[in-house]
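ok so for the tutorial part 2 we go from a plain amino acid sequence to predicted structure tokens. step 1 is just haveing the sequence, like this:
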Amino acid sequence: MRTASTLALAAAALALLTAPQALAQPGTDNPTIKGSADPRDLNGVWFLNNPSHLDRDRTVHYGKNGPMTLADSRVLWPIDGSIPPFTDWGLKRFNARYDGNIANKPIADPSTSCIPHGVPRAMVPTYPFQIVQTKGITAVLYEVAHDVQMIYMDRPLPKKPKITQMGTSVGHWEGDELVVQTVGLDDSAIIDQMGTPHSNQLKLTERFKKTDGGRHLEVTMTFDDPIAYKAPWTARTTFNLRTDMKLMEYVCEENNRNAVDANGVTGAK
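step 2 — the prediction. this is what the tokens look like for a chain of 269 residues:
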């Protein structure tokens, strides 16, 4: 059994670990940071800028502390702020998570058990990610849960992809845009923090493009999923280049097998 002092020490340690991260808030944009002049050079650490949140009336707004903001309600929704074109299957799944959030009884998702978040959700939490480009592979290293998205360049999508949490991603360049397509995403994952769903038939197309001299990264995402949505729809978000940051250690394995119950007791013997 964990004692109160043990839990207090753990909380103090967590505060120390997260304190540096707390200084790097979304939207922090340092004009002195200079990006690479090469539009195809995406290498570097990127941090979410101006995240969107969902209100209780299902209205999307940008930035923190908006009116009626739901806790942990960051969403990736259509660019025009409308509600995604849910099918009955998709709306049922979304409503269950939305209602759980309203009632302060959120439904667990894979990340609750330290399972990879999936894409594009790994971009949504307020943790940075790093892009590393090598010959034939572009890797996106997410600080959150240390998730990794391997993008295999100039290859066709697999006809029968293996279903996994991060899926299979292939990429190619169209002018100055990196176009990434991902399939084989497990339907236990969700698109964003709020719980926008997808099925394992989702085909995700992301377009990465640097703007403002390389200081910002715009990512446009199109969701094509005939099970969850009546028609494809597109979201967009932006990130700031952070040459002053490095990815921090993220630990999500403690008590993964022996979860702590409401009394602070684990299953360990």
